[in-house]
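Bug #77: duplicate submission created two jobs. Keeping one. Sequence:
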Amino acid sequence: MADQQQTNGDSENGFPRKQILLNAFDMSTVGHLSPGQWKNPKDRSANKRELKYWIDLAKILERGGINALFLADTYGGYDTYEGSLDNCIRRAAQWPVTDPTIPISAMAAVTKNLAFGITASTTFEPPFLLAKRFSTLDHLTGGRIGWNIVTSWKKSAFKAIGIDTPIEHDERYKQADEYLRVLYKLWEGSWSSKALIKDVENDAYVDPDLVRTIHHHGKYFNLETRHIVDPSPQRTPFLFQAGTSPAGSAFASKHAEAIFVTGHSPSVLAPKIANIRRLAKEEGRDPASIKFFCTFTPIIGRTDEEAQEKLAEVKKYASTIGGLVLVSGWTGIDLSTLPLGKEITKEDSLEIHKVTSSLSVFTTASKEVPKWTPEVVAEIASIGGLGPVSVGSPSTVADELERYVREADVDGFNLGYVTTPGTFEDVVDLLVPELRRRGIYPEAQEDGLTAREKIYGKGQSKLRDDHVGSSYKYDVYKEDPAYVPEGKPAATA
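Kept job's structure:
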């Protein structure tokens, strides 16, 4: 199936220009990437516990033809800064957090095209339960569901579920790899497409002979079950993944269809993206089929001057400490302990459990950020957080998006907000028309496409043939051999 992200007839430096994919980036919390804005009278972040917030946001994004609403999530607070959770709670730095899956059905009911990418962890719940929930959501949304695969790392989150010590970083990815194989077995291999027979005369709704029992006996998981939900429009939700550490990159090259990357400069992102595309090719996949979405926070005015005025206004409400709480948690560096002016290095990260790719983001110098110090982090962290902030007219911001596409080989952007829904309204009303004028953003979408079809084209609602999950499809399914601990002889027939 041809890739949906076609290039148009216009070219730049002899190369066709990509169609840019845009996701709205939000989180079911008061302070996502720009903590403190809840004090801003123009911001509705504190209303996210009301269903109306999500319904209104979905309608705005649908109006702008936004590809998906990408929802972050977390399972514990950030307690690296000052060695305490207090400032995380006090500054509402991703606290409190509600469950992102609950409002999805309501948003799907008021939209036809908007897809939803939901963060969920491979660490904290059995794969059978996650498979059931995502199959349900895929049914209820008509196939508009994506899953942002994460492995959990926070000590506070592990302690919340009764585990004292988080799983080691690379071990988490080994566990996640097996987790995904279990899910492919449930989603792709358990049910035949012909299992739903609806035979009225014989009182038979499902043919049990066409629903396979999965016998999975691995290092981390043991299952003897059939999937309890019949195949949804996509079977497997569209697969996002975040993390560009060596272990994360290897995992992504095998499983991810889209990858969420962060970096304050195209020069920082380009080698990471090139490496994952190379690894994907080694896995037998089309490297171009993996779509990279970069975090990006726009502050848009009708003119550059108006945008600068908006920046000055939001700075009044920014929580510097809230931003430092987030970055300290992501990087494992207690920024409260570092002297002003000190160049931050990876050696400052004394916490074992952290986001390795985020540590790289805040310790890798570039033309845009030649030196990372506590002062620089403090300025950046409270507005936009993880990625670049672009301030200007629609033309200025569009130029910057095109620069990232051109120099880093990204395919799209997870657009963060400073104020919500204000930032998203500016994207829809100001930025989208400019991108359309340039011919790099679709004028309209066909109704009824699944999340995967919106990326790969109509008809590609299921996993591509070169994806590892396709090897578990019902008609070609072969059960994996049981795991044998090292040193123990394999069982013989």
